[in-house]
Protein backbone atom coordinates (compact mmCIF):
# COMPACT_ATOMS: atom_id res chain seq x y z
CA UNK A 1 0.00 0.00 0.00
CA UNK A 2 2.84 2.37 0.84
CA UNK A 3 4.50 1.90 -2.53
CA UNK A 4 1.19 2.58 -4.29
CA UNK A 5 0.89 5.88 -2.40
CA UNK A 6 4.49 6.70 -3.34
CA UNK A 7 3.73 5.91 -7.00
CA UNK A 8 0.81 8.38 -7.03
CA UNK A 9 2.88 11.05 -5.26
CA UNK A 10 5.61 10.66 -7.89
CA UNK A 11 3.05 10.76 -10.68
CA UNK A 12 1.46 13.95 -9.35
CA UNK A 13 4.87 15.60 -9.03
CA UNK A 14 5.69 14.67 -12.62
CA UNK A 15 2.37 16.09 -13.86
CA UNK A 16 3.00 19.29 -11.87
CA UNK A 17 6.46 19.61 -13.45
CA UNK A 18 5.01 19.17 -16.94
CA UNK A 19 2.29 21.78 -16.32
CA UNK A 20 4.90 24.26 -15.02
CA UNK A 21 7.25 23.73 -17.96
CA UNK A 22 4.65 23.95 -20.72
CA UNK A 23 2.67 26.88 -19.33
CA UNK A 24 2.85 30.18 -21.19
CA UNK A 25 4.07 32.27 -18.27
CA UNK A 26 4.10 35.50 -20.27
CA UNK A 27 0.38 35.05 -20.98
CA UNK A 28 -0.38 33.98 -17.39
CA UNK A 29 1.47 36.98 -15.91
CA UNK A 30 -0.45 39.35 -18.20
CA UNK A 31 -3.79 38.32 -16.69
CA UNK A 32 -5.69 40.02 -13.85
CA UNK A 33 -4.69 38.70 -10.41
CA UNK A 34 -7.75 36.48 -9.88
CA UNK A 35 -7.25 34.60 -13.17
CA UNK A 36 -3.48 34.43 -12.70
CA UNK A 37 -3.83 32.95 -9.21
CA UNK A 38 -6.43 30.45 -10.43
CA UNK A 39 -4.14 29.24 -13.22
CA UNK A 40 -1.22 28.97 -10.80
CA UNK A 41 -3.42 26.94 -8.44
CA UNK A 42 -4.36 24.65 -11.33
CA UNK A 43 -0.70 24.20 -12.30
CA UNK A 44 0.14 23.12 -8.76
CA UNK A 45 -2.88 20.90 -8.09
CA UNK A 46 -4.49 19.94 -11.39
CA UNK A 47 -7.88 20.68 -9.80
CA UNK A 48 -9.91 22.36 -12.54
CA UNK A 49 -13.08 22.67 -10.45
CA UNK A 50 -11.51 24.58 -7.54
CA UNK A 51 -9.38 26.67 -9.92
CA UNK A 52 -12.52 27.72 -11.81
CA UNK A 53 -14.13 28.77 -8.53
CA UNK A 54 -11.06 30.83 -7.63
CA UNK A 55 -11.29 32.50 -11.05
CA UNK A 56 -15.02 33.08 -10.59
CA UNK A 57 -15.91 31.49 -13.93
CA UNK A 58 -17.55 28.26 -15.08
CA UNK A 59 -15.35 25.18 -15.39
CA UNK A 60 -15.81 25.19 -19.18
CA UNK A 61 -14.61 28.80 -19.40
CA UNK A 62 -11.67 28.04 -17.14
CA UNK A 63 -10.75 25.06 -19.29
CA UNK A 64 -10.62 27.38 -22.31
CA UNK A 65 -8.41 29.80 -20.35
CA UNK A 66 -6.17 26.85 -19.43
CA UNK A 67 -5.84 26.00 -23.13
CA UNK A 68 -4.97 29.60 -24.02
CA UNK A 69 -2.29 29.49 -21.31
CA UNK A 70 -0.94 26.30 -22.96
CA UNK A 71 -1.26 24.31 -19.74
CA UNK A 72 -1.75 20.60 -20.41
CA UNK A 73 -4.68 18.89 -18.70
Task: Supply database-style keywords.
73 residues; mainly alpha; 0% strand; PaREP6; coiled coil
Secondary-structure-based class equals: mainly alpha
What is the CA-based Rg, rounded? 13 Å
Average pLDDT confidence is 97
Number of strands: 0
Number of domains: 1
The parts where pLDDT drops under 50 for at least 5 residues are: none
Largest sheet: none
What portion of residues is helical? Answer: over 70%
Order of helices and strands: HHHHH
Q: Which percent range describes the beta-strand content?
A: under 5%
Shape call: globular
- The number of helical runs is 5
Rounded to the nearest angstrom, the distance between the terminal CA atoms is 27 Å
Protein name: PaREP6
Keywords: Coiled coil
Organism: Pyrobaculum aerophilum
Coiled coil: 1-28
Amino acid sequence: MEELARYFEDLEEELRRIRRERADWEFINSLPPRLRIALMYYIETGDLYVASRIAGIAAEEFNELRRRAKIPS
